[in-house]
Design goal:
Length: 600
Amino acid sequence: MSNAEMVRLLEQYADLNEINGENSFKVRAYRNAAEAVASLGESVAARVEAGEPLTDVKGVGKEIAEKLTVMATTGRFPQLEDLAKKVPPSLIELTRVKGVGPKLVQSLWRTLGIASVAELEGAILAGKLAGLPGVGAKKLEAVQRGIEAYHRNVGRTRLGEVDFIVEPFLDKLRAVPGVVRLEVAGSYRRRRETVGDVDLLAATNADTASAAITHAFAAYPEVAEVLGSGETRSSVRLKNGIQVDLRVVPEDAFGAALLYFTGSKAHNVALRQVALDHALHLSEYGLFEGGADPDRPATPGSAGRRVAGRTEEEVYARLGLDGVPPELREDRGELVAAAAHALPDLITLADVRGDLHMHSTWSDGRATVVQMLEACAAKGYEYAALTDHSKALAMTGGLDEAKLARQWEELDEVLAEARPRSSEAPAGRAGVTLLRGMEVDILKDGTLDLSDEWLERLDIVLVSVHSHFELSQAEQTARVVKAVSHPQVNVLAHPTGRVLGERDPYAIDLAAVFEACLANGVAVEHNASYQRLDLSDVNLMAAKARGVTVTLGSDAHSVDQLATMRYGVDQLRRAWLTSADVLNARPLAEVRRFLRKGRG
Ligand SMILES: [Zn+2]
Ligand SMILES: [Zn+2]
């Protein structure tokens, strides 16, 4: 059994236990184990086979280790099978509707037999929910809004979750002999924050290789169902519900096909118009000269002479355009810029010199300060800001002033130990400069959850909204504007509070917030957690247009989550940002100057 399958089963078990009213400690243990397996760099099954104890894996206790061993050796999870007889797994989908918690799902099912979103909608229409305990008019409204949001999000998966499945799949297919090129196209390649279907494109050097990749594609262990299988086109649904399409195309048309299937549709339409302006005809088979009937799709042999198509760059160049990075292909002015040789030099992951948002075991992180710093050093960062929560977030173990003082005592020790003993290049965590920071809650009235005395002492102050999402736009805007106007504040973290597929942004006038940030020397964060990706690409463009400085923060709560930075860089690229727009693409001295706001 693959790790991915184990993760899915552990999560399902946690969800069903939660619906079944089991204690939250048990539920959390299974969720933590799922996360641990998801981020494990090796196969659980291989570990079991080699006789290495699974209890060495952080987040996996003795009981769960036994269950994983059974899964690895028998391919089954008997406790889950038993539970699924009592609690139908279709109920899990119901918990994805915002406003419908596990408790309500259980009562809907017990009292009304509701086991799906469609049944819930039907019951609401028939007025059956009214009068159910705990379902007042307000709750009912919230559930209806939740169902609308559910339908907006259904069929799309967050980029980070797709990567987890797609990357090993690609490795497998690229290893098939005779495959010369294999790429993912579509919104995945454009790095959109959520992805629908996954489109794979392959070029092979022989017919036998085409057959081999088609076979390997359908035989992949994560495939739940083969939807169609042909010589040049196959389609499967994976066990996690994502549909993946594979097209095998000739090598000399690979670039044209990649361009076509990467999209966006709007970009393709605009690009075909550029081709027509050059008296050329662009299709998924190539760029053609002469004989093309613009109203009929061109096919090889029917559409004149192919003048480009092997690579995307070749097609763009033949049209007088610089190559457009996939992230920019949204018809937001990229073709005009490409024609004028004025495309931006987009930021890359290598430009990021430090992470300005992370948590440790001092609040709700899972790794110690030392572990986080060592991981940052391994990434080659110059600096890292430790930004644990403040006390208002009691459930995270947020820090009050006394606890912050204790944290600083530990930091003093850590830094003293880490000081390099010689003048040689510093090793390990000694190479990373620690910025002492905090993610301070913005309270309901816009004041901050930490004393001014401590705010002054911190190197970097992030502020964020974690409560009272329901305020009116005017109230929420005034609250946040007041917070960023505090002279010690440096960064507004996750500025809209959205959680992709789960929570819509709260109502806020971002233009007014950007104005206040600019006036007060405050940067806005792009929170790189793939669950948030907040600000969105469009809002980042607006921030840049207004001249507001942007920071990138992983908001990592574990060592592995530091890697989520790449998804943040993706979104910054989609927003046309260069390293000059981003605070933590600058050297430490410049970062410090920004954080001091011109003070000594
Ligand atoms: Zn936060
Ligand atoms: Zn945070």
